[in-house]
Amino acid sequence: MTQYMFTGFPGFIASKLFHALQEKSPSASFVFLVHPTQLTKARHMCSNPHIQLLPGDITKEHLGLSKNQLKQLQEEVTHVFHLAALYNLAVPKEAAHAVNVVGTEHVNRFVRSLNNLQRYVYFSTAYVSGDREGPVTEDELDCGQGFKNHYEWSKFEAEKKVAQLEGVPVTILRPGIVVGDSQTGETAKFDGPYFIMRFLDALRQWPIPYIGKGEAYFNMVPVDYIVEASLALAHSEKAVNQTFHLTSPSPPRVRELIHMISEELLGKKPALTAPFSLFEMIMKLPPIPRWLSVQKESLVYLSSHAEYDCRKARSILLAAGIDCPDVADYLPQIISFYKRHRDDHDKKIAVE
């Protein structure tokens, strides 16, 4: 019998993956390693008798589980999806290391103890590329790059440890910047391009500026594509011991994205170009990020010149009928959802 185990539930992507798997494999059972602080929320989201919620913590030895729990899992779990991580761009180094690096080491050790493992799916990020510029292929990892924040660095260190596993059927996934559902616009948090929306929203009574030259590509992907692609690769024999970019094959440049957002959100085109350095200066003023609910650490991604090659992923996904939609086709749904929920406190990013 197939048994899927998840870390990172009830997070947004983990929850979407679970519901999609439920539809595809109604007879499968599920085990969720849930941090104690998320247990109440997880219970509200689960009513299926084939679901087991286990309070645990990836930062602890044996994931904080008992010997009896571990013994049962070692015999029954067939697939592990490891999504638990600190995704905050402003995360302190110590916290990022404890959760993203040490936590992944603990999950790796657990995975190696499983007797019937068919696949270990690790969710990394395209931004393990750090400060690299130009083409980045799916088979590249350690190229001597530096990192823009502790989040990138810790995911890089964690991915290295997963890639070094021997005798384990691993699939490593590197999503781009994940946004809401391409059909409904639904999302859990307003980060990534939503920061652009919040910024332009605040300027709606003024001439709208482009942010610098805007020549960099902004690689965003809708969550439903991430879910479809992840499940297809998790069950493809061609994906064993491979790494894939779940990124857009044709991302917009930042200038083009700002133009599209401004027209859809505000009904008007940007009228001028302001220096990127001006926005950097403004975002360093503490009241501004808090007022906008925008992390100043996010601004650097508007000038990141990495270009993510996703041909290896697409060779498998296109054969399965899965393709990443174009931003222009789903941006109206993303912005419509944002408009309806822009004041929802739970969707705003906490900025200190």
From TrEMBL:
Q: Where is the Thioester reductase (TE) domain?
A: 7-229
Question: Which InterPro entries would you find in this protein's record?
Answer: FAR_NAD-bd, NAD(P)-bd_dom_sf
Q: Which CDD domains match?
A: MupV_like_SDR_e
Instruction: List the SUPFAM superfamilies hit by this protein, alphabetically.
Output: NAD(P)-binding Rossmann-fold domains (SSF51735)
Q: Which PANTHER family does the UniProt record give?
A: DTDP-D-GLUCOSE 4,6-DEHYDRATASE-RELATED
Q: What is this protein called?
A: SDR family oxidoreductase
Source organism of this protein record: Laceyella putida
